[in-house]
Amino acid sequence: MTNEINLTIDGKEIAVSAGTTILKAAQSAGIDIPTICYHDHCTANALCRICVVEVEGARTLVPACIAQVSNNMQVRTNSERVVRARRTILEMLASSVDLSDAPDIQRMLQEYQVDTNRFPEAEERSSPS
Question: Rounded to the nearest 5 degrees, what angle is found at the Cα of 87, between the Cα atoms of 89 and 39?
């Protein structure tokens, strides 16, 4: 028998099975958390950190793709802190990878109002002055 976990995500009370990740719990409640490195056919590895959320009582932001829910957990998926972290991650990604063929990430760049020039490109950093 699976234990049921009650938690709140963005003010919405939900119940899921023990062992469920925050990402899957949010999806079951119709709450979108962006991901890049996580897919149903891959092992969640939390490398990209785009899925970070704010969990009440946690010192740092938590990767929703690997963090399991706990009873009475309070999660915020779109706080100022979360948005700022996602924007920074996307800015760093845009400075080091050609994202022109990644329409989902292009949408994220727009949604999070990313400054694609915030970090200089690798060639600029390594050029002699």
Answer: 60
